[in-house]
Amino acid sequence: MYIVLGVTGSISAYKAADIANRLHKDGHDVHVIMTDGAQEFITPLTLQTLSKNKVHADEFEEYDPTIVKHIDLAGNADVVVIAPATANIIGKIAGGIADDLLSAVVMAAANQADIIIAPAMNTNMYENPIVQENINKLKNYGYHFIDPKDSHLACGTSGKGALADVDEIVRIVESAK
After folding, report:
1. Beta strand pairing call for 158-162 and 149-152
2. No. of helices (H) and no. of strands (E), the chain
3. End-to-end C-alpha distance for the chain, whole angstroms
């Protein structure tokens, strides 16, 4: 299966390495897209080494002038999974904004690939009515969500907002399509 793994700027970004590694070891073709924020938490080299594919981050960096990267990634994708997904990327997608490579790929892939979103953020952010409205809006459009878990969070509080377990994310991604 051709999987696009989107990684956004959350402390949980380090878990994307395990997700990429597990999916690759299970025989999937994993292509990672990192937002600028994600690169503050984990390096592209880590995800490139584990996925065995070049990591994409720059929307305007084209390797082959005959291929439009975001359309190519989207067109090949069986599944696009965003793990971790911040409130920012969820809001962008819900608002139809495609101003970076990840949001552009999601917009281009939404009609032909399964889109799976695994939120990770502070409890107050996750429970914010605007974030919940955006999640519900995307669910109504057929996007799939993997609920965050209750845990002790990086900010020092406890509550719902921690990235779902890697095992659960991998299982759900592999059961798609």
Report:
1. antiparallel
2. 8, 7
3. 9
Residue whose tokens read 């999916």: 23
Structural Rg of the chain based on CA atoms: 15
Structure tokens at 137: 């809006």
Q: Which of 71, 66, 77, 70 is nearest to 56 (CA)?
A: 70
- Return the pLDDT at 47: 97
Collapsing DSSP to helix, strand or coil, 49 comes out as helix
Known catalytic residues are 155
- Of 45, 52, 53, 57, give the one whose Cα is nearest residue 9: 57
pLDDT along the chain (177 residues), means of 10: 97 97 98 97 97 88 73 91 98 97 95 96 93 98 94 72 94 92
How far is residue 18's CA from residue 159's CA, in Å, rounded to a whole number? 23
